[in-house]
Amino acid sequence: MKGIAASPGIGIGRVYILGEEPLVIDKTPIEPKNLEAELKLLEDSIKKSEDQLYKLMVNVKQKLGKDQAAIFEAHLMMLQDNAFLDEIRAKISHELASATFAVDQVVHKYSAQFLKIEDEYLRERATDLEDIGKRLTKNLLRLETRSLNELDGEFVVIAKDLSPSDTAQVNKDMVKAIAIDLGGRTSHTAIMSRSLEIPAVVGLEKISGVAQTGDIAIVDGNTGVVILNPDEITLKRYQESQEAYLENISELRQLKGEPCITRCGSRKVELTANIGSPADCAGALENGAEGIGLYRTEFLYMQRDNLPIEEEQFLAYKEVAKTMNPHPVIIRTLDIGGDKKLPYLNMPEEMNPFLGYRAIRLCLDRPEIFKTQLRAILRASAFGKIRIMYPMISGTEELRQANAILNEAKLELDEEQVSFDRNVEVGIMIEIPSAAMISDILIQEIDFFSIGTNDLVQYTLAADRMNERISYLYNPLHPAVLRLIKNVIDASHRAGKWTGMCGEMAGDSQLAPVLLGLGLDEFSMSAVSIPWVKKVIRSLSYEQAKALADKALTIENPEEIKALLKTVLEN
Ligand code: PEP
Ligand code: MG
Fold it and tell me: Which residues, by Cβ under 5 Å, contact ligand 2, an ion?
């Protein structure tokens, strides 16, 4: 079965179907004389749920960090929300509903409202609400919650969906992989399984109905493939790949402290990590990142219903700056819009959101939002080596306007006698072909470029990065893309400056030789990819990579370039 590869690695084991224990909802009205007892039952269940969630939060904070624990903090807050609880209490008192029925009704009312929201992230919050409802009901029914850390043996956990609380309790020694029907890239299961480094495939649609407890399953988190009850030969093949993968990882981890230098030492490049929150810094350092090449700040603005105030942003940016110090941290200013909407900003519905009101366009239109963020970043720059990066710049005018607002923010801080790094470097993302074409002009006004290939490829080839049907067109090795990349790197070097890359292309170890040869200075990627890219770069000489890049630029067919890269990597 094919799903979405959510967390890398290969896991093999006996299937454990995490079934839903039937929760019996009693729809018959209660006797008026039992009203007090029913209300007491509800209060006891709320208290017990609170205790469980609090323990879970503390546990997860220790194991996975503050950010992952925030989910349970949010659960706790929902559970302490009086409007929500009063509605349940009222159903019992006024309608004589049983406590289980009252919880069921109120939870479904709210989760149905979440499910109507277009934003994928917020829609998934309905799962959180249902998670709370289940917890309350289980406690009302006095059912013991069997948690995933009590499994005995080695398992592949298969389920329709895994709630955040299920995933957080996964014991890594027992759970070899996760495969679930639902979920996308932004689901908490995907995010958490990556943090836990457990191979996972999500979005399999119906695996929980097909697999049975006791089956053998292979979960390939690298390709998104799950095989049930494999034959001997397949099993052996995957066991070998699994061993090779694990061996590679442990061997690669030994490179952690080594610099990323080419074989004969003639070129050194920086390998940095892409992060979405301060908690991701731990994984970055563990994998040997020499800094943060992309901090996607928009996550700070999501999962909530108002803008984060300056102080809150400052604390997050400062934490990253301090944790990574003396390594540099590139903070990308708000890149909202496209597929990332903020419902509380009341953004207009658009025909082509990826070509619409997003990122720097929105920030220049709402300078108060932009300046608040810039002030927070500047303040944090006093605590480490911070660089500022604007997304989606298409031409000089936008860049100048953005810099003008940055200057205003600096002047304000000066007046307030607040310290910040006066030499803070400013760069832009190159993700629009127009910016790549005029990179020689743009570089005059800034310190560095970072190429965002995720968008650059889609805009150059007019191929939506999210549309499966035309994914065959979405190819970073297309000659037009390679020429744009070369143009950008060369323009920066001629100006005595540098170019990084923070799109997914930078983390693809197979493509590293050509990027190295084109002269890329910094490769920024998800932390787990760093050791793989490092290994490839250390195995090549710069001359070899340059010759390869020169050759690749003369080839018109991306498949031929791929074949060429393969021969280089095999030799
Ligand atoms: C990119 O476009 O390559 C990029 C890194 O930005 P995002 O994926 O956040 O759009
Ligand atoms: Mg982008």
Answer: 431, 452, 455
